[in-house]
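During the reporting period the student researcher (J.K.) took over the structure-prediction task from the postdoctoral fellow and processed the backlog of single-chain submissions. One of the processed entries is reproduced below for the supervisory committee.
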Amino acid sequence: MSTRLAFSHNTYWLLMMTLMVTSTLMLMLGQGPVGSAVRSPAPPSPSPLSASIRFATVDVVIEIGTVPLAAWQVEFHGSIAGGEVRLVGIEGGEHAAFAQPAYYDPAALTIDNGRVILAAYSTNASSALPTGKTRIARLHVSIRGGEDQQAEFGVTLRIAANAVGQAIAGAHAAVLSTTSQHDKGS
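J.K. obtained the following structure tokens:
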């Protein structure tokens, strides 16, 4: 008799598990049990920030004088009143030594604080490194909200170094230009 009870007990639990799995799958597929009405969740109401999204490119330059630039680190920041600025892409610089996109923390792209730290280095010989003013990066940003406002961008030079790792005195970074901040719709 105990064998029969164990068999019946196992059959009961197998049947219950099958019903639970089937019900769960039906609910996930939007099909409730027979005779029930399953409603799709209401779409989220648009937030003020989703009213418009614009895109722009921002060129970042470093002025280093006559000393060849081998490494650099900058902090880029963007802001707009009544909205947010997010970095969505990074291109390399104009000189072959920095043609590849800069290094950065990918997690910074998901944080809505409008700032990211970028860095790059080159192991090229000093004769193959840039001097003077050079574009080190072209940044692509999305601008959400703040339709009547112009986004503001800035850059802070953390370090510019020569081929032997010494800081370059008098070096400075700037935002050289931006494209028009055109509307891409909602």
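The committee noted the following: Residues 16 and 106 are 46 Å apart (CA to CA).
J.K. will present the remaining backlog at the next meeting.
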